[in-house]
Amino acid sequence: MDEIDALKNEVARLKAELEETRKQSTQYLQNVAHQLTAPLGAIKWSIEALKDERVPIHRKKTLLSSVYSQATILVHLIKNFSLMSSLEADHELGQFREQPEPVDPMLLSINLVNDFQPQAYDQGIRIDVDNESFLKVFGTNALLIEKNLVSQAICNVLENAVKYGDRDSRIHLIACSTADAIGILIESTGIPIADVDRERLFERSFRGESARQKVAAGTGFGLYLASRVLAFHQGHIEVQTKGRVSRFTLMFPRKRLSGRKSHG
Known about the structure:
This protein is of the alpha+beta class. 55% of the residues lie in helices and 17% in strands. It is built from 8 helices and 8 strands. Strands 2-4-5-7-6 form a 5-stranded mixed β-sheet. Helix 1 runs antiparallel to helix 2 (57-88) and helix 2 (57-88) crosses helix 3. It is globular and about 75 Å long.
């Protein structure tokens, strides 16, 4: 009798887990659809306006910049969804076969910043890379990393900095180092992060109250994925806040330094 009761309890537990998984999957798919609709709609509207012969040239230049900006957001979202899908399928990052390559961290940062410049411009935000700090910290060394994964991690932090940043503010990318680690610091001025929220920033699907108030739509897994990528590289992300200023630092162990640089 005890064995039958135990089996019934196990069946009930599995049914509850299956139902919770179904609910999460449905919510995830709805979120994906909602997030993709906005940039696609903006691109469609801009292209229709570009086809209008009555629209002046200076306005068309602005529209082209908007198309580029929205396309960057779209590509970024799709990459995040792809990475999240891999995690959902239990292909944990730690199980990926690591194939690191030497990457110039300064050139990588510059290229990623260039992708976000149109989006930042629309928000009245400037992004700059402190080249001098990168030369001082990294010198002629490269980072041995999975380039696509680290690029996505940096993009996730950059996207938040732009999305939640104050108008007419600046975002700085600065190289930094400690005795046993080197990193890329992303500093921005925007909505303040409450202490209670800071402790949960890297939880999957978490979004703070102030973030939801400023931008209603969001998946809440950008920083979660970024933290997973850094952990895969035996690193971590440090967070410091003071008022409206936030600093996210992607830290890598010094053993990730290579003696030669490659393309960023």
